[in-house]
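Service request form, structural biology core

Requester: graduate student, group of Dr. S.
Request type: structure prediction, single chain
Budget code: on file
Notes: please return the result as structure tokens.

Sequence provided:
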Amino acid sequence: MELAGQIAVITGSARGIGKTISMSLAEAGANIVISDLNVEAGKETVAEIEAMGREAIWVQADVSKSDQANQLIESTQEKFGRLDILVNNAGITRDNLLMRMSEDEWDSVIAVNLKGTYNCIKAATKIFMKQRAGRIINIASVVGQMGNAGQANYASSKAGVIGLTKSVAKELASRNILVNAVAPGTTMTRLSESITSLPGIKEASLSHMPKGRFGVPEDIGKVVLFLVSDYAEWITGEVIDVDGGGHLLGLPKYDEYLRES
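Core staff response, request fulfilled:
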């Protein structure tokens, strides 16, 4: 899984899963563009990658805004002269029962998770088509396939990401541009703490994990590394669940905890 000299843009990569993906690709030889809204953490991640002997740059971008997504890709092109890998990882949650969910809670999640993915793919595709090569990995979620009470906005956004992945894969395959999605289950990051910290939800969630543990960001990074490597050159339009088999048992009744909170 050698990526020597390749250029990868990872959105939402200052911390958590995005940072781990960035480190995994850097360890394999790629030079990395870190993009996030968290400036301090983003620059710290750049420094860590540079300490590995790789090139890395920081580009602050709100991917829900098309002009900033375009600037992210343009900055990459200006610095490195090419782009080989795009990982759309930026995402947010605004959990609530639908009857309580505000319009802003709905709109903000769709804007970042789905529209942000669209914006970045559209901007990067112009480069990929000229090169007649590229890899796009979209971070979805098992919730986008199963649904989850209390997460109608998040589940809808991730279901949209899955549909977008499959559609764009069909459009770009003839240009040697491969598009796949990775669908994590519950993975221990800052974003998931708001869920697992609710009384009783951690125990209930673990009871739905056949392997008896939550995922860690490294579980996701390994699969992304595989999908952008030459080992996956005959894979496109796929959604790979990375949840330790959690989807086999379904999700706990998360809505009960939201009603009580």
